Amino acid sequence: MLTKVFATIAVVITGGLLLYGVSDFPAFGDPHSPANAGVGNEESISQYFITQTYKDTKVPNIVTAVLADYRGYDTMFETVVIFAAGIAIFAILRVTGNEAEKKSIKPPLDSSINGDHQRIIVGTTCRIVIPVVQMFALYVVAHGHHSPGGGFQGGVILGASFILVAMSEDLNAALRRFSEKTYLTLACVGILIYAGFGLMCQFLERNFLDYGILQKVLFTDGPEMARSHSMLGVEVGVAFTVTAIMFAIYANLSSRGVLKNGL
Amino acid sequence: MIFAFDIIILIFLVVAAIISLSVKDLLSSAMIFGIYGFLICLLWAEMGAVDVAFTEAAVGAGVSAVFFIATIYNTRRRSSD
Amino acid sequence: MSEFIQTNVQPYFNFWIYVVLMMIGLWALIAKNNLIKKLIGMSIFQTAIILFYVSLGVKDGSTIPILDHHGPEHHETADAGHDDVHEKEHGKKAEPHHADDHVGPNPDTIANPLPHVLMLTAIVVGVSTLGVALAIGQMIFKEFGTLEENEILEQIKAGNVDD
């Protein structure tokens, strides 16, 4: 009870101060606020992105271009954070050997698919839906330049399709298709693809992740198209890591780290 | 950006947040949190942030609700408050 | 009345609601007893902050940050004379690029992409750290057999912890 009183007091004071501070903000939707238009006569960085992105990279989706090219270093280490989270869950939950036998969750009452009417409906529906979901995920990754989407979204959808396999049948069925060894390898390969693009630029005597020089390797018309294609490459790397880690998190959480007979 | 649309979604957001925190059944709580995620996704699509809305639809509403359900399945479904 | 709403409520209503959402999350983090509820509160707090960042990039009457497929030239003709109120600023801002072959799209007609980029990665990183938090929650459940904070604290006080 005392906690609730204390929490209410803290929340009211903090909220009051924040509400008071709101009155000094620029109005919602103001195109000339400092965040949108910069201070004084200087052009702000976001205006530079809007006006110059297409000229620099030939990518219509500004968000993808800024994410994978201008701020590529940031995105690379965001991907590493996701990878580290997956490894942390592996370290916290995963059990093997004798301990796994003790902790193993009891198998579902009726895990056989034949003759189980609920599983027939859910299983058949998912079998039809899952390929469509995966095709859509690949489209989102590959088409991230021209429409909303990219490595993060496509990776999450692809990971969700494997989670759907695990939920509609059981975890073992999903792990037969996407085993622990596979997903850990895939997570590492994703980051290595991303870092590989950066290192390739360094070997060609440019800065890390400065894609323009890759036109020598990719045989494109100019540095713009090289940047566009390199963005697709790093997005694929991001998609690999995110797919693998999303499924890894689900598999460990749903089976308490035993990776057998989960939800 | 349409102001009436904004108001409706923002009020629904506050309602969804309060309900998902006050329901005692954790499974319903996780599902209402998924609804909260979809409402936020609508708000972002309406603000012109299509990429963020797409991410939220896939991540916030889909995968994070599934993670909550997976944890609740392995722990306890009832909550004391 | 409607004038009052337009000048005093409309520009700040969104920010007020973000503060309310943030405070709901903070209250849940402090006062809720169940650890899963605390995590839901933390996610609500996080989404409120992300909402705030994205709304900094909103411009009235702007479109999504994806350019026309046929390139900026097409865009420019479509937008000519679109809003004449800010004509003067445009002329000033766009001046340095006139020397180039073509002028890029008008920045005031396209939403600010920078907050979108920053928050897009924050969402995905947020869900993977949520996974770590849930994993720690499962370990706590394995150790104490409960997720209620007061019961865990009682067990710790009674010295009922192996290790």
- State the oligomer: heterotrimer
Beta-strand portion of chain B reads under 5%
**Class from helix and strand fractions of chain C:** mainly alpha
Shape of chain B: flat
Order of helices and strands of chain C: HHHHHHH
Our count of helices of chain B gives 3
Sketch the major β-sheet of chain C. none
User: From the alpha-carbon coordinates, what is the Rg of chain B to the nearest angstrom?
Assistant: 14 Å
Give the arrangement of secondary structure elements.
The complex is a heterotrimer of chains A (263), B (81) and C (163).
Chain A: H1 2-22, H2 34-37, H3 45-57, H4 62-70, H5 72-93, H6 97-103, H7 117-142, H8 151-168, H9 171-177, H10 180-203, H11 215-218, H12 223-254
Helix pairs in contact in A: 4-5, 4-12, 5-10, 5-12, 7-8, 8-9, 8-12, 10-12
Chain B: H1 3-22, H2 26-47, H3 50-74
Helix pairs in contact in B: 1-2, 2-3
Chain C: H1 2-9, H2 13-31, H3 35-56, H4 72-79, H5 87-94, H6 113-144, H7 149-157
Helix pairs in contact in C: 2-3, 3-6
Provide structural commentary.
The complex is a heterotrimer of chains A (about 260), B (about 80) and C (about 160). By secondary structure, chain A is mainly α. Chain A has helices at about 1-20, 35, 45-55, 60-70, 70-95, 95-105, 115-140, 150-170, 170-175, 180-205, 215-220, 225-255. Chain A has one domain. The radius of gyration of chain A is 24 Å and the shape is globular. In chain A, helix 5 runs parallel beside helix 12, helix 7 packs antiparallel against helix 8 (about 150-170) and helix 8 packs across helix 9 (about 170-175). Chain B starts with a helix and ends in a 7-residue tail after the last helix. Chain B has a domain at about 20-75. Chain B has helices at about 5-20, 25-45, 50-75. The model of chain B has no long low-confidence stretch (mean pLDDT about 90). In chain B, helix 1 runs antiparallel to helix 2 (about 25-45). Chain C has 7 helices and no strands.
